[in-house]
Amino acid sequence: MTRSLWRAAACAGALATAMATGPAAAQAGEGLEGEWKARLTVKSGRQFDGQLQLQATGGTWRVQLQNPGDPCIGIPTPVQWQRLDSGAYELHFQGSKALTGCRDNIITFQQLEAGTLRGRSDAGVEIVLTRR
Fold first, then answer.
1. What domain count does the chain have?
2. What residues make up the domain containing 42?
3. CATH number of the domain to which 69 belongs
4. pTM across the whole model
5. Averaged over 14-31, what is the pLDDT?
6. What is the DSSP code string of the chain?
7. Structure confidence at residue 11 as a pLDDT band (50, 70, 90)
């Protein structure tokens, strides 16, 4: 996989330590707290797995791949999340807080059905989150 695809996978999630933003995210009924498995699909069709654990005050996300040529891939990355007025969820993956030089990425996730969310990074990586 090329470096740009590796970086896209990382940015699609640079996925890791999650911290809720503001009181709106911590309100009862917001529904993101818990463990999630993730499936990342890059433009070529290749798929990668990840996991996301969220609580009202923080959590952890990690992609199940690493690339020696790109230290931003596969490391725990802080995430902030909030529920939008539309009912969708916005996750802000903060790669720059995980490691200097890594890129931040904001992805909006729509609920497909109970316990399943789908979003797409600006690099075109689709991420499907499924509650465990």
1. 1
2. 3-131
3. 2.40.128.120
4. 0.77
5. 40
6. --HHHHHHHHHTT----EEE-HHHHHSTT----EEEEEEEE-TTS-EEEEEEEE-SS-EEEEES--BTTBTTTTS---EEEEE-TTS-EEEEEEHHHHSTTPPEEEEEEEEEETTEEEEE-TTS-EEEEEE-
7. very low
